[in-house]
Design a protein that fits this description.
- It is a single chain.
- This protein is of the alpha/beta class.
- Among the domains are: 272-405, Flavocytochrome C3, Chain A, domain 1, CATH 3.90.700; 480-609, Fumarate reductase/succinate dehydrogenase flavoprotein-like, C-terminal domain (Methane Monooxygenase Hydroxylase, Chain G, domain 1, Up-down Bundle).
- It contains 17 helices and 20 strands.
- It has helices spanning 20-27, 33-36, 48-60, 98-108, 115-135, 167-184, 250-257, 321-325, 335-347, 364-370, 372-390, 445-467, 478-497, 503-518, 524-544, 556-580, 604-607; strands spanning 2-3, 40-44, 63-67, 85-86, 160-161, 188-191, 194-202, 205-213, 219-223, 226-229, 262-263, 268-274, 297-301, 318-319, 359-362, 399-408, 411-412, 425-427, 609-616, 619-628.
- It has a five-stranded mixed beta sheet. It has a five-stranded parallel beta sheet with strand order 6-3-2-10-18. It has a five-stranded antiparallel beta sheet with strand order 12-16-15-13-14.
- A hairpin with a 2-residue loop joins strand 7 and strand 8 (205-213).
- The longest helix is centred in the C-terminal third of the chain and has 25 residues, at 556-580.
- The radius of gyration is 24 Å and the shape is globular.
- The two termini are 39 Å apart.
- It binds flavin-adenine dinucleotide (FAD).
- Flavin-adenine dinucleotide is lined by residues 44-50, 67-70, 76-78, 80-85, 167-168, 195-196, 230-233, 242-243, 247, 250-251, 287, 406-407, 429-431, 443-446, 449.
């Protein structure tokens, strides 16, 4: 690894923190309404980030080409989000403010995010709720009609707006309606069932993408004045995760190969409340929303190996370990902390359930206090889902939960304008690295996606167009031919190997390795082992993968092969990043760097920076560029939730 001297300019505006965005808005250049129609923007992704961006850009007058691999834009993974969306409206009058939300987010991310980005996120949170209410999103309301709030981890106020356990779905429907209005107006052209397989860069600027029609197999070129990636996170690198099965890193990783920097890939979030894995043939894990920790109490037996049924374990034999260790935040300790605490009790032999890999999330007391009916009103669909999957009734028996891969804070590097280091390539939502540092607070991902798409990108992309000379973008450009040839060549190679193993079997093998060596806790020895082992998996993959069918029609095996190949390369980058970051922070827990109480121990002297990886083509040894993080408004402190 070579550390380059290159200085990355995050283009953070001058001035006081609380005026940066307003000033920037006033200073950014504009494209006049008549000229907007001359620009075309490619938006890859139709989740909350891509959907909100596409709708808003089209509403402004730009021509938008919108891509997703699902059969409908409405089925993007954002639809799975359950628990809620944060905004510091302070409807509860419980002491919330932009400053408090900002502080909670910086601290939650373990002081590894940019102050200016986080402030803007929290500042715009209140407008997002107004925007969504205006679209008709049916947020839960109090009896008197005001919007209801609940609490999520890492906060001592209630700032999470929700629509039962279907918040993502309702927000996405709002967004989708806004998109469809523009489809109808002819400003958005939809390309569902279309997978982006490469980015086209000419003279250092992003000018288009290469796609494959997933039904006909046709490989096509699309050119534009700017490309926006809103392609979600890479949590499926672990194979088992709460993400939809289709979530993948291909778009981001192809962009990385074309020169975009990949930042902090080792920052992954392991969510504490998921249904535990139960067997070797499982392909997916299910989230039980963090909102459940408002009323559910987490516990295990005080005695290792205790085989008694939960209702046979009296209170004095139970260890409500989050309430014991973190009395101020209790069951609402942030995700990284709650996950590690669960791992510790399981490692001590105090895990529950048939596999011993799990802890209880118990609603007995809440049902006693509020009544089953009220609990059902808040969480009914989550309880039903749990019962359908486990065949256990959580109104009667405590849920069993265990941490699982859920979200990725790492992603493509972007500046304050959400533009990558490649001019013309913007990255929004979970696909970028920008706002959550080393650990994201629950209910802030939906917020980030919508803030990026509705309120930030529509300004900053105009500034880019107004500042940079308009390109004569055309698919005849030689770079398009080269990119198309790369894609076709890769497809041909997959189809020709004709080995013995399915792409999925390689993905599962890789995921297990990454989970063991670069999951909830990591150490140098394990990471080095993974870095040695991954090239072997890569070689086996390229020699022995079997892709059935042809390239000319729907071929899931071919899709999986491409995605697995990128996950293999990303996994190696993740492990290198985790090895290089010799500290613990947020979700990145290096066993060598912990306090006497087993908490993450940061090294601010050496690691108060964003790690940005620059690809050296297919050479697995990438270069590293550091973006220093400057804190002017908060003091770097040891995170404590006690
Ligand atoms: C089960 C679950 C529950 C969650 N609950 C919450 C919650 O309550 N609150 C919260 O704040 N966050 C929650 N999250 C996190 C949140 O849902 C995600 O971070 C967020 O929805 C990501 O939105 P996005 O728009 O960035 O990406 P996504 O919604 O993942 O959308 C990605 C889009 O990109 C497209 N795409 C990707 N690659 C390609 C390609 N190569 N070619 C073409 N198209 C491509 C996909 O088709 C899709 O349209 C939850 C996550 C999970 C897994």
């Amino acid at each position: 690894m070579k550390v380059l001297e290159e200085r990355l300019d995050a283009r953070i505006p001058d001035g006081p923190l609380d005026q940066k965005w307003t000033r920037h808005q006033g200073e950014m250049k504009l494209v006049s309404p008549n000229n907007k129609r001359k620009y075309t923007v490619i938006v890859v992704g139709t989740g909350l980030a891509g959907g909100s961006a596409a709708a808003t850009l089209a509403e402004l007058g730009y021509n938008v080409l919108s891509f997703c691999y699902q059969d409908s834009a409405r089925r993007a993974h954002s639809i799975a989000a359950q628990g809620g969306i944060n905004a510091c409206k302070n409807y509860q009058n419980d002491g919330d403010s932009v400053r408090r939300f900002f502080h909670d987010t910086i601290k939650g991310g373990d002081f590894r995010s940019r102050e200016a980005n986080v402030y803007r996120l929290t500042e715009l949170s209140t407008d997002i709720i107004d925007q969504c209410v205006a679209q008709g999103v049916p947020f839960a309301r109090e009896y008197g009609g005001t919007l209801a709030n609940r609490s999520f981890g890492g906060a001592q106020v209630s700032r999470t707006f929700y629509a039962r356990g279907q918040t993502g779905q309702q927000l996405l429907l709002g967004c989708y309606q806004a998109m469809m209005r523009q489809v109808n107006a002819g400003k958005i052209t939809l390309f569902p069932r279309t997978e982006m397989l490469d980015l086209v860069v000419a003279n250092g600027r992003a000018i288009g993408i290469i796609t494959r029609d997933m039904v006909t197999g046709k490989v096509e070129k699309h050119c534009a004045d700017a490309v926006v990636l809103a392609t979600g996170g890479y949590g499926n690198v672990f194979y088992l995760s709460t993400n939809a099965k289709g979530c993948n890193v291909t778009a981001g990783f192809r962009a990385y190969r074309q020169g975009a920097y990949f930042s902090n890939p080792c920052y992954t979030q392991i969510h504490p409340t998921c249904i535990p894995p139960h067997g070797e043939h499982q392909s997916k894990l299910t989230l039980m929303s963090e909102s459940l920790r408002n009323d559910g109490r987490v516990w295990v037996s005080k005695t290792p190996g205790d085989k008694r049924a939960p209702d046979q374990i009296p209170d004095e034999d139970r260890d409500y370990y989050l309430e014991r260790i973190y009395p101020s935040f209790g069951n609402l300790a942030p995700r990284d902390i709650a996950s590690r605490a669960a791992k510790r009790v399981v490692d001590e032999g105090r895990g529950v359930g048939p596999t011993g890999v799990g802890v209880y999330l118990d609603f007995r007391d809440a049902i006693g206090r509020l009544g089953a009916q009220n609990i059902a009103a808040k969480y009914g669909n989550l309880f039903d889902m749990y019962q359908r999957i486990t065949d256990e009734d959580p109104y009667k028996v405590p849920m069993r939960i265990y941490p699982a891969s859920h979200y990725t804070m790492g992603g493509l590097w972007v500046d304050y304008n959400l533009m990558s280091n490649l001019p013309g390539l913007f990255v929004i939502g979970e696909a970028n690295f920008s706002d959550h540092g080393a650990n994201r607070l629950g209910a802030s991902a939906l917020l980030q996606g919508l803030v990026d798409g509705y309120f930030v990108l529509p300004y900053t992309i105009g500034d880019y167009f107004a500042r940079f000379k308009k390109l004569d973008a055309s698919a005849d450009h030689p770079e398009f031919d080269q990119a198309e040839a790369r894609v076709k060549d890769r497809i041909r190679t997959f189809l020709s190997i004709n080995g013995r193993r399915t792409p999925d079997s390689f993905h599962r093998q890789l995921g297990q390795l990454v989970w063991d060596k670069c999951g909830m806790s990591r150490n140098a020895e394990g990471l080095k082992e993974a870095i040695a082992r991954i090239p072997e998996i890569r070689q086996e993959f390229w020699e022995d993968v079997k892709v059935v069918g042809s390239g000319e029609d729907l071929n899931i095996s071919l899709e999986q092969a491409g995605r697995t190949a990128d996950f293999i390369d990303l996994a190696e980058l993740m492990c290198r990043d985790a090895l290089a970051r010799e500290e613990s922070c947020g979700g990145h827990f290096r066993e060598e760097h912990q306090t006497d109480e087993g908490e993450a121990l940061r090294d601010d002297e050496r690691f108060c920076h964003v790690s940005c990886w620059k690809s050296n083509g297919t050479d697995p040894d990438p270069d590293l560029i550091l973006e220093p993080l400057v804190f002017e408004n908060v003091q770097l402190a040891t995170r404590s939730y006690k």
